[in-house]
Amino acid sequence: MNFLAHIYLSFDDDDITIGNFIADSIRGNKYKHFPDRVQKGILLHRAIDTFTDTHPVPKQSSKRLHENYSHYSRVIVDIFYDHFLAKNWKRYADKPLAEFVDDFYDLLEDRYDILPDGVKRMMPYMISDNWIFNYSKMEGIAKVLNGMNRRTQNRSKMNFAILDLEEHYEAFEEEFTLFFEELIAFSKQKYRSLLEKDRDK
Fold this sequence. Notes:
It is a single chain. This protein is mostly helical. The protein is 75% helix and 0% strand. It contains twelve helices and no strands. The protein has helices at 3-8, 14-22, 36-54, 56-69, 73-87, 89-92, 97-110, 117-128, 131-134, 138-151, 161-167, 169-200.
């Protein structure tokens, strides 16, 4: 899953949110210096990614893209799924998306000191262009895909995936909706189990 889903699946827990957001910048066990609850956010992120990568529904979405985008297909599906979460936000949250995203940006600024350097470099662009809110719009997704393609030195051709999204929009949305309910349930259970380990110490 991409940024918005990981933030949402942190269940309004600030430390978990930070860990869940920065996890892709942390390799192996190089997270032990973070506060304990931030560490748990990193572990939650990894569990979410494993659940997603092994689930048949995202695999089905990815298979539709594989011929054109090979191993980049799963990255593209993550971005597509964030689009459908943003588009259908009212189904999943009471707080408006714009307010939710602004609160997250405020959190990043409050916890700036503990963010990895790569996140610090990315953050001004994310906030100024309002990446996360703009996932709700097709032009926002097109911009993300263009940026991802540039990061691969144009090898991935991910910029063309917006055409696949347009062509198979309903199928991707149905797959997201089916999968995301299961992911919410899994993430809640994992979140509770991580916190229970604290209480059991």
